[in-house]
Amino acid sequence: MTPSHGSRVLVIEPDETLASQLGFDLQEAGYEAIIATDANSGLHKCRDLQPALIVVDRMLPGESGLSFCKNLRATGNTKPVLILMARDAMDDRVACLEAGADDYILKPYRSEEFSKLIRLYLKPDVESSEQLRFVDLALDIGTRRAIYNNKAIDLTMKEFELLKFFMEHPREVLTREQILENVWGYDFVGESNVIEVYIRYLRLKIEENGQKRLIQTVRGVGYVLRES
To answer: I need a surface site. Which of 58, 83, 98, 128 has the fewest CB within 10 A?
Structure first.
């Protein structure tokens, strides 16, 4: 029996020992593990095998894991991406998010925590008819897709969570601190521009083909979902 795409996880890891351990942990958790050793082969396997989630080491031969993530997002792939990295400095975390990753895993990792994170991102879509609505924009909670003027919009996990937060607070000005805490779970602001990066991603998708802007910038404060 061929495993479904929903249970398929791609691991891009040049270290054979680490790749083998990650693959073993995935199989123990009930997933099919696919291994690639560099960014180029990883992109090909994403296209051909359609994994449900990608785990990629930040340090790859040739192209970095962050560059891989940016290139993957440029193809329109919205599957969750987790970055393996050795440092937990704030700028490293921010760099992962700005590259389009959904989360990160610190090395050396613990098998239980790794499996728990994979299950979190691969939990089945909720059978739900609930939709959030704001003017001509709808967000389907079950499928995690947006619909704007009858056009479906595919979203990454973080894009979905960010748009959901806005749609739960329509016409309410949300500060950067509120957005970071509720969408990313971080209580920092600093010089990070991760919010701006993801706002830009959402605007590009929502405003495609000349659609009107709904996420407005409130200079010096944050953002608000409202008609211009």
So the answer is: 128
Q: Are 87 and 164 in contact (CB under 8 A)?
A: no
Angle at 76 (CA atoms; ends 70, 77), nearest 5 degrees: 80
Cα gap 47→204, rounded to integer Å: 23
Is 80 exceeded by the pLDDT of residue 166? yes
**Cα distance from N-terminal residue to C-terminal residue, the chain:** 53
Half-sphere exposure of 138 (CA within 13 A, CB side): 11
Using the predicted structure, report yes or no on whether residue 42 has a pLDDT greater than 80: yes
- Which residues, 6 or more positions from 148, have their beta carbon under 8 angstroms from its beta carbon? 136, 137, 138, 206, 211
Domains of the chain and CATH, by start: 8-122 (3.40.50.2300), 131-225 (1.10.10.10)
- Per-residue confidence band for 2, with pLDDT thresholds at 50, 70 and 90: very low
Dihedrals phi, psi of 217, to nearest 5 degrees: -90, 130
Query: Which tens digits make up the pLDDT trace of 104-146?
Result: 898 999 999 899 889 988 876 555 568 899 999 999 988 888 9
Q: How many C-beta atoms lie closer than 10 Å to residue 223's C-beta?
A: 21
**In whole angstroms, what is the distance from residue 103 CA to residue 113 CA?**
13
Length of the chain: 228
Can you tell me the mean pLDDT for 61-81? 92
**Distance between CA atoms of residues 162 and 217, nearest Å:** 15
CB-based contact 112:135 (threshold 8 Å): no
